[in-house]
């Protein structure tokens, strides 16, 4: 029943979109069917310790029902995002905070495409895969906190958080990494630094930046920190693919940066309920989102 219901919802969304776009894709299966057909490829891409492809496919199907316009995205971009998540061992759903699948309207190809945003939890998960990883902390600093840091030959960082109403507003964010060989490193960004980086993102006003600003600010610190510490191959790929669109779902596509382009996301309305819809459940109403502007030229790397 869930599959038939999901296909009807996906077909309804597809028919409501521009006929000029859909006319070229009438013979193709819906994304719901496409995800089910992808299970063997997902199985091969998944790291051995994560088990079978059923869970990833189930989460992907849930996202198709939960995220407006996602079911209207091109199969190539959806497959690319899903295969990237599978190869990196990340769950493609907002509940886990590991990765987000966000739709954007590309006027150049007149179609919705999927932009993959690696989440705060996803970055931390991949950090722990490195054999030298010994610890990773990231925190928000508030006005009432005692906070001092110093870079140089003998860097130091001290943070004594305030409690309750004495906290005040956020002033800084930082991330600290410890390595098993005794090394350590940290990065501190003030609120203006974070805002400068956020404004360079194509998803600066939507998705996790709108719903989980604090987590995204700390993720920004982690990204900057990852530039100066050893990274696993999976973590390096995640940083390279974050906030991009992948159109090549082949195994080789994971290591070909030129097949990734930046896109502009479609703004998402804040969720009304606290719980994510299950695969069997389809939300009764979908709020309409305005189309995003044409993607601008690629910004400088974060």
Q: Summarize the biggest pleated sheet.
A: 3 strands, antiparallel
User: What is the β-strand count?
Assistant: 9
Rg from alpha-carbon coordinates: 20 Å
Distance linking N and C termini: 45 Å
Query: What is the 3D shape?
Result: globular
Structural class: alpha+beta
Strand ordering within the main sheet: 3-6-7
Order of helices and strands: HHHHHHEEHEEEEEHHHHEE
What is the averaged pLDDT score? Answer: 76
- List low-pLDDT spans: 12-28, 258-265, 274-302
Tally of helical segments: 11
Helix content: 25-40%
Strand content: 15-25%
Q: Can you tell me about this structure?
A:
Strands 3-6-7 form a 3-stranded antiparallel sheet. Strands 1-2 form a two-stranded antiparallel sheet. A two-stranded antiparallel ribbon has the order 4-5. The chain has helices spanning 2-16, 19-22, 31-37, 39-45, 54-66, 75-88, 120-127, 191-200, 208-211, 213-226, 233-241, and strands at 99-106, 111-118, 133-142, 146-150, 156-160, 170-179, 184-190, 245-246, 260-261. Mean pLDDT is 76; it is low at 12-28, 258-265 and 274-302. Helix 3 (31-37) runs antiparallel to helix 5, helix 4 packs parallel to helix 6 and helix 7 (120-127) packs parallel to helix 10. Helices cover 35% and strands 19% of the residues. Strand 1 and strand 2 form a beta hairpin. The protein has 302 residues and is α+β, with helices and mostly antiparallel strands.
């Amino acid at each position: 029943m869930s599959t038939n219901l999901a296909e009807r919802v996906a077909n309804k969304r597809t028919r409501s979109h521009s006929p000029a776009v859909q006319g070229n894709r009438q013979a193709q299966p819906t994304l719901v069917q496409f995800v089910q057909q992808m299970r063997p490829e997902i199985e091969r891409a998944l790291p051995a310790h994560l088990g079978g492809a059923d869970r990833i496919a189930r989460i992907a199907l849930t996202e198709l029902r939960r995220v407006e316009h996602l079911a209207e995205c091109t199969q190539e971009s959806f497959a690319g995002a899903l295969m990237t998540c599978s190869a990196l061992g990340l769950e493609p759903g907002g509940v886990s905070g590991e990765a987000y699948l966000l739709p954007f309207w590309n006027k150049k190809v007149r179609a919705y495409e999927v932009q993959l945003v690696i989440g705060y939890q996803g970055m931390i998960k991949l950090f722990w895969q490195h054999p030298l990883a010994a610890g990773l902390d990231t925190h928000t600093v508030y006005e009432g906190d005692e906070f001092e840091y110093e870079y140089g030959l003998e860097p130091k960082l001290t943070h004594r958080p305030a409690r309750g109403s004495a906290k005040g507003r956020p002033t800084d964010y930082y991330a600290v990494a410890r390595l098993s060989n005794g090394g350590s490193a940290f990065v501190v960004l003030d609120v203006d630094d974070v805002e400068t980086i956020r404004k360079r993102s194509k998803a600066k006003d939507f998705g996790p930046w709108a719903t989980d600003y604090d987590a995204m600010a700390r993720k920004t610190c982690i990204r900057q920190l990852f530039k100066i510490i050893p990274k696993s191959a999976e973590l390096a790929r995640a940083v390279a693919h974050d906030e991009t669109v992948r159109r090549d779902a082949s195994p080789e596509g994971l290591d070909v940066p030129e097949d990734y382009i930046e896109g502009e996301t479609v703004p998402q309305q804040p969720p009304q309920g606290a719980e994510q819809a299950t695969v069997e459940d389809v939300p009764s109403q979908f709020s309409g989102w305005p189309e995003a502007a044409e993607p601008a030229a690629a910004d400088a790397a974060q």
